[in-house]
């Protein structure tokens, strides 16, 4: 998928996670309290309990946008940040919903089907989000994993020492691999149709300022290609704040969306 961002959504998968604690339910726009039983299994993390980042929908014409549509790729959201998003349910009886968080200390989710929702990320850890319509039918369920944003020096250390390479093999037609070999240099290899590209080296500099790009918080990387006539003349990258994914750009377009491989 070379020409644009991927809008990947995983449908009808069961969610696996840690057991719910302090389960909280809020109804919007009313304050009716509900409860939800969540089947679980243990998942360990060096930071805090995390959940499997998969999404589940009902068959009521449900679609999502904003950060909810990115979770299957970026896997987590950033502590201290807020995200706007929408859930559309064509066959819902009205705009009212009931929102349940298995751990409301981790994140909150407020809004309705008409005006959209705001996800507020409070603490590091994992929680399960469940959204039901006014009749109690589940519209949407997903894992919300909150992590700290890496500082620029931490990010550089992570992408060089902890990630083998970043992969963008979305099809047999176009595929790429990106490697950061040092704190200032890297290389990319790729194939576009029948054209295969040998390693094209570059130098990079991580911008110090954490910024928002579409629905993602991260850092811009300024790229200089060693060969000005290379088949792919990269100009910049946008690295997600946890180092899990990166967007790669030429002067005029995005090359692809890359995911870490360890």
Q: What does the model show?
A:
The protein is elongated and about 60 Å long. It contains two helices and 19 strands. With 262 residues, it is mainly beta. The chain is 7% helix and 47% strand.
Number of helices: 2
Principal-axis shape: elongated
Strand line-up in the sheet with most strands: 11-12-13-14-16-17-18-19
- Averaged pLDDT, please? 81
| DSSP strand content | over 45%
Helicity level: under 10%
| H-E string | EEEHEEEEEEEHEEEEEEEEE
Number of strands: 19
- Largest sheet: number of strands, sense, barrel closure: 8 strands, antiparallel, barrel
Structural class category: mainly beta
What Rg, in angstroms, do the CA atoms define? 20 Å
Low-confidence runs (pLDDT<50, min 5 residues)? 1-24, 26-46
Report the oligomer: single chain
Query: For the terminal residues, how far apart are their CA atoms?
Result: 22 Å
Give the helices and strands, then pairings:
Layout: E1 24-28, E2 55-57, E3 62-66, H1 67-74, E4 77-78, E5 82-89, E6 97-101, E7 107-112, E8 116-121, E9 125-133, E10 138-147, H2 152-161, E11 165-167, E12 174-180, E13 185-192, E14 195-206, E15 211-213, E16 216-225, E17 234-240, E18 245-250, E19 254-261
Parallel strand pairs: 4-10
Antiparallel strand pairs: 1-6, 2-10, 3-5, 5-8, 6-9, 7-8, 9-10, 11-12, 11-19, 12-13, 13-14, 14-16, 15-16, 16-17, 17-18, 18-19
Give a quick set of tags describing it.
mainly beta; disordered N terminus; six-stranded mixed sheet; 262 residues; 19 strands; 2 helices; eight-stranded antiparallel β-barrel
